[in-house]
Amino acid sequence: xxxxxxxxxxxxxxxxxxxxxxxxxxxxxxxxxxxxxxxxxxxxxxxxxxxxxxxxxxxxxxxxxxxxxxxxxxxxxxxxxxxxxxxxxxxxxxxxxxxxxxxxxxxxxxxxxxxxxxxxxxxxxxxxxxxxxxxxxxxxxxxxxxxxxxxxxxxxxxxxxxxxxxxxxxxxxxxxxxxxxxxxxxxxxxxxxxxxxxxxxxxxxxxxxxxxxxxxxxxxxxxxxxxxxxxxxxxxxxxxxxxxxxxxxxxxxxxxxxxxxxxxxxxxxxxxxxxxxxxxxxxxxxxxxxxxxxxxxxxxxxxxxxxxxxxxxxxxxxxxxxxxxxxxxxxxxxxxxxxxxxxxxxxxxxxxxxxxxxxxxxxxxxxxxxxxxxxxxxxxxxxxxxxxxxxxxxxxxxxxxxxxxxxxxxxxxxxxxxxxxxxxxxxxxxxxxxxxxxxxxxxxxxxxxxxxxxxxxxxxxxxxxxxxxxxxxxxxxxxxxxxxxxxxxxxxxxxxxxxxxxxxxxxxxxxxxxxxxxxxxxxxxxxxxxxxxxxxxxxxxxxxxxxxxxxxxxxxxxxxxxxxxxxxxxxxxxxxxxxxxxxxxxxxxxxxxxxxxxxxxxxxxxxxxxxxxxxxxxxxxxxxxxxxxxxxxxxxxxxxxxxxxxxxxxxxxxxxxxxxxxxxxxxxxxxxxxxxxxxxxxxxxxxxxxxxxxxxxxxxxxxxxxxxxxxxxxxxxxxxxxxxxxxxxxxxxxxxxxxxxxxxxxxxxxxxxxxxxxxxxxxxxx
Length: 766
Known about the structure:
This protein is of the alpha+beta class.
């Protein structure tokens, strides 16, 4: 008999086993699933693993069609729900087998609501036990894991497990019922399309839609500013009229009439003010994601994935935290000493160690389970690319929280010109202090003004009247939207990035400066008109608070789920009463959206039809919608995304499309393969240097001319055609074989036959 420890993922099981091993570590596997046998203080321990969620929610009895409401649900193995989860079956079977001879179970999944649900379901359904011991840790270091094992709770954290399970039930209730209601509505209008939304996705999309409406409704208001360009002792001095913005041009003109012919201005006052700039607070997940986006343009979801990898390797603490506090018992001195062994961090770590009083600038936000994100002191043996950037950012932030406040100084110079006041402002850093530790990530404006004295005359070089307009609100970025969702208490620290990605996948939003697609606009409009409760932030926040109350023991799962069922029944009954009307509006929306996102331009052959992006059994192509009367077609590359644009080619006047390929910049290209811009210089055919059998011949694609072996597909050799000014060397490989495949003839698809594989998205085709 032995104790079975269950971790969340395979990497974590190895870390736990290595920490508890007092000597020999035995690695075994069950059909490829690793587990470890160790002895700790003479006790036999087996460390096994899940692979994230092994169980998901599903209907107890599969209902016919898209009937709703659905509330009778249960936990079932994930591999029974989705083929994509087939890989999880062997992990579940391994845990079942390992648990048979276990006299006790200890859960060592991540200590948060999701980890608790993963552990609870493994205990209940894989191990057939009612309870288990619980390890709680924030890092995967040996010291923390040993302490977590020695001080393990005798029970699962039932409040946390209940809160997590409630969240899953609520999300499933909302997801399946609202999605079925939307799908059934559009089906009643004679169109079949699976539509979906979620408990938080709807309110999140409405937030972005409301911002988009503000931008579209925005009417710029003109204003005027007066700039004085001066010079003193060889240094330039820029000052602006103290009114800043004139909303009436007449008033600006009056001032200009007074000052435009003046040759000098007088320094009437100088004000210097120093202030302390506090060091940054420790990272919680949201601030890490927003900072990584600001500095590295990393998508918040990618940042979380990187942080999770750093945590799994034992290099940083648990990243899914809302805390901005570092407790003293973390052992700051030891962490700094460990980091000082790294040449890059040696000087900074030693500076802090010499300081003595290590007190971080903790923020107000807390987390009941984990501290703020910090480096463990364990140094990566090899790390590069984006992982290295995020790790360095976390280390430097950790250093900076212990720094002294930086001292900054603002200086204002008041100039008098014809009794009109102008102000020159500048800010500089007097003492860097914590900036030193956070370099190169401190981004501050340094504008130092020249030294002047009161009553000094400033030579006027020019006085300019600027005409400006007010700007519309900025679009959300993924980082600023995450902050907004957090501010409104929508979603969780771990789910907000995923919510944004889901909205993108469903083609409700596009771009880094997030725009709402026509599909997103119309969907929100229809829901606002017929079922606004689906988008109700207050209702979503109410349930978020309920789940926090469950975690704190103030309420329980049955009461919260009963309330949710009641709300959904009322909401869905209202929806069902308007089902046909909603369906017709959704159908119209999808028909218009599909046309907009697939219409490339007018047909140059028949002058009457539209060129449409289509999908046939041989791939994508562009064809005239007047087929069979007009048989005009154009080839489209097989790989990458295709985005319809309103642009036309400046050379041949054919439509332009935007090609978006992984790892390359988006490129606008002309669809006309005979466009003069794609013509290649006269080149003689030459033997293929790769297969030695074929001949390299000139071919054309939307990207231009290229050389390809005529033995394709047996030989996929491709080479670039040099520009006229380049030497005749043509052996640089630049295109994948997909480009060559794209040149194959694509037969016209019968317009009556629906494509088997739908790939058309909002202005994009995969």
